[in-house]
Description:
InterPro entries: TPR-like_helical_dom_sf, TPR_rpt. By secondary structure, this protein is mainly α.
Amino acid sequence: MTKTSHSIRTLSLMMTSVVALTALAACQTTGSSAQGGETGRQAKIDQAIERAANDADAAGSAQDSLALVEKLYKRNPKDASVATRYARALRNENRLTRANLVIEPFAQDSKAATADVLVEYASIQTSMGNHAGAEAAARRAVDKNPESGKAYHVLGVALDAQGKHKPAEEAFRSGLEYWQGNPSPLLNNLGLNLAAQGFLDEAAETLRKAAATAPNRAEIERNLRIVNALQVSGGQVPSYLKQEEKDEEKKPKKDDAEKNDKKAAIDHDAPYVPPSKPHPAPAVQKASLSVKPIMDNDPAVKQAQTQAPVPTQKPVSTAAVNQ
Length: 323
């Protein structure tokens, strides 16, 4: 074979290789484009579901929102933000066991446990009565984000439920400093914390601020009436309020959603009512005139007709004034 013929044959083989590689690259590009197109389509579906869930939230349809968020979670079970939203929707419907199962793996994963995840996990724990666990999770949330008003709020709720009223007051006040949105849940719970410590004048003033930010919230108005009555009666609950509580207890209780597949009304976020005496630590599970605190995501708060800014100055404790 001549030198020229050999060179032509070598060049031909090289061209064949280039063509083959180009074809292979084209196939790979086509496959990547198809895969990218499918990912884009799935993302658009997720966005459509999320918009529909947001619309349901805005319309006050908790059950429709839950169904949509559940669908979103099933499509993205490893997404911490989606799991957090799903757990919150479940908690709002009082489906606490399911909510805990959804959020717990993320709360226990040091990488996935964001402040938002831990706030929701703590909220679920305190709703289930595990206040010590809620306190631990809330402290982790504060460590993750020291400027999270929600983290301080749920920490205050957990501490208050354990009778740790002074640390709870400090947590509530820190929450006010960083709070965003309607502050009525935090103001309500701070007011009742102050009432439990015997600071009735300051408690009444704080509850009035809470009522002003959520005028449609009957529980806050009732709490304010009770504190006002305690002021007048020297710390003793009037008989008509005790009768009101008895009448409330006689009302038929709603069924648990997890036990009978019925959607329970949102009642686990009702505000805590101060005890019948001004100073003792409030009972958590069962006591006269006591219910659970309002949480910051309570749907009833979202539907309040007026919105008020967070107070620019934090209330001063009566104890601090006397020093």
